[in-house]
Structures are given as C-alpha cells and as structure tokens.
Write a structure and sequence with these properties.
InterPro entries (chains A, B): DNA-bd_dom_put_sf, MerR-type_HTH_dom, MerR_fam, Tscrpt_reg_MerR_DNA-bd
Keywords (chains A, B): DNA-binding, Transcription, Transcription regulation
CATH architecture of the largest domain in chain A: Orthogonal Bundle
Number of helices of chain A: 5
Number of strands of chain A: 2
Largest sheet of chain A: 2 strands, antiparallel
Oligomer: homodimer
Organism (chains A, B): Microbacterium kribbense
Protein name (chains A, B): Hypoxia response transcriptional regulator
Pfam family, one (chains A, B): MerR-DNA-bind
Chain lengths: 129, 129
DNA sequence: GTTGACCTTCCAGTGCAGGGGAAGGTCAAC
DNA sequence: GTTGACCTTCCCCTGCACTGGAAGGTCAAC
C-alpha cells in the first residue's frame, strides 16, 4: 500500500509517516519501481504502539527506545516497566505541583474579588498577581 | 545602572532583559553617551511582576497584556481577574486530564507487573503499553 | 598601553512533533 | 492526451522563552 493509504488506515498523515521514518521509528520500507514507498499492513501494529505511547505521554525518543529493543529481537518488558515507573513518578510530581499552583492562584483570585480599581496602586503593576 | 547590574538585582541575565525589551515587556530605556542602556531601580517592580506572572504560569504575551493596560494609565484589575479565571479553568482541566492519565498508566504498570518476558508476544511490539 | 570585564548588535540554535509549500515525477481515469 | 490526485525530496516555519556566540566598542584599573 502507498503512504497515503497507510496514513489513512493509521489515522495520521503521510508527512508524519515520513517524519517517523526519518527519526528511525519506522523502518525504511520497499519502494515501487517509480520510487513510491510500498508498505504492508504489518506496520499498523507498530503505528498503533507509537500512538499508545504518545497517548501515555512518552516522547518519540522514548518510544523509539522500546522499538529498538524489539527490533533487536529482545522483549522490551523490563524497559517498558522502567519507563512506566518513571512516567508515574513524573505524573505524580506534575500533579502535585499543579495542585499547589492551583491553590496559590485560587488565593490570588479570591483576593482580587474584593478589589476594586480604586484600591489599585500602580507601584507594583498589579498587587493581585 | 547598567544592564548587568539590573540583571543581578532582578535575579536574571542581561540577555533576558534585552529579550524582554525586544518583546515589549520592558520599555526602551535611556542610553549613556557610549550607547549603554541606563536603568533606574524603578524597573525592578516591573521585573518582579513579570516573575510573579511567570510563576503563576502565564506566558510573556499575557503578562505583556497586563503591562500594556497599566502603561496606558488604566488599572488592569478586571483583565487580571479574567486571566486568573482562565488560568484556574486551564489548571483544573490539566489536573483532571493528568489524573486520568495517571490512573491509566497505573493500570498498565500493574498489568506489566505480573508479566514475564516469556508471556511477551511481538505482534503488538509491547502488550503492556 | 594593555588587560579584562563589561557593553553593543545581529544571527542562529535549543526541544518537541510535526506542518507548509515548492518543484518536479507518476499513475489511473476520462 | 490531459486532468487531477497522488507521490518524491528539499528546506523552512511554528510556539515558547530564552541561550550561545561572533565581531566589535567602552571603561576602569594597573
């Protein structure tokens, strides 16, 4: 199948597929006589995996690591577990810091509520932020 | 005071101050005869405001909006309230989506825990992600 | 008069994941 | 035989907030 067909089947664009190939996430595929990329449906699970990885918040570089391990003939389980652990730790830290920020901004907003323009002094641009 | 001195007083770099000026967050200041920027300490509250805004997660473009209102001689209170409201809504949405993602990844991680390499099938690259 | 720290402008690059568009080749249908 | 959809490579652009570095000017101290 040609690149546009594969793109549609995978829910992405031809541009993106060429980009993945350039980045090493997709193997270089065969070509037709006229130079068109010629894919089989066998690439679809790989593209699915890339999408699942992205949905989980992994970077293409991290996804490529897993694909490389797989392409070397090894099971990537251990590495995937490490990635998931790291991602969980990152998410927890991120959620904690956003929650703290949410509280701070909530405070600012409550203080700004009672304020009127006449209370406003210019010396700090805005005292409610 | 010269730019390096101001940068140190404000806890930033001369590069950043020039960048802020170019972006319109700092007014163009006077120059010495030799062409050096010449600042007064009066810019410090403005830089403080920029830092507070950044700490609250606002972009420089948003911070500039507030500064522009202030520079026009108006009180930015109303606009700041709107910005805070928007930021709160964004934060809530972000926290919700990260929390949902955290649950999903937690599930994946638990499923991967019982897995061993021998259970691993190559057809989807990794069944635990 | 020279060293070294500071300043000036300008250009380019960082990371991330592509998107836009030019210039040209190919293919199937009409 | 021509139209239109598709493909190829190529290079630049996006947003965000800077950062690095080159080439040159300035200033105070020694």
């Amino acid at each position: 199948m040609r690149i546009g067909e594969l793109a549609q089947a995978a829910g992405t664009t031809a541009k993106t597929l060429r980009f993945y190939e350039e980045r090493g996430l997709l193997p270089e595929t065969g070509r037709t006589l006229s130079g068109y990329r010629d894919y089989t449906r066998g690439v679809l699970p790989r593209l699915d995996f890339i999408h699942r990885g992205q949905a989980a918040g992994f970077t293409l570089a991290q996804i490529k690591q897993v694909l490389d391990i797989r392409d070397d003939g090894h099971a990537p389980c251990t590495h995937v577990r490490d990635l998931l652990d790291q991602r969980l730790a990152d998410l927890d830290a991120q959620i904690r810091s956003l929650t703290a920020l949410r509280a701070t901004i909530g405070d600012l907003r409550r203080r700004a509520d009672v304020a009127t323009d006449s209370h406003c002094r210019a010396d700090s641009v805005c005292q409610y932020l």
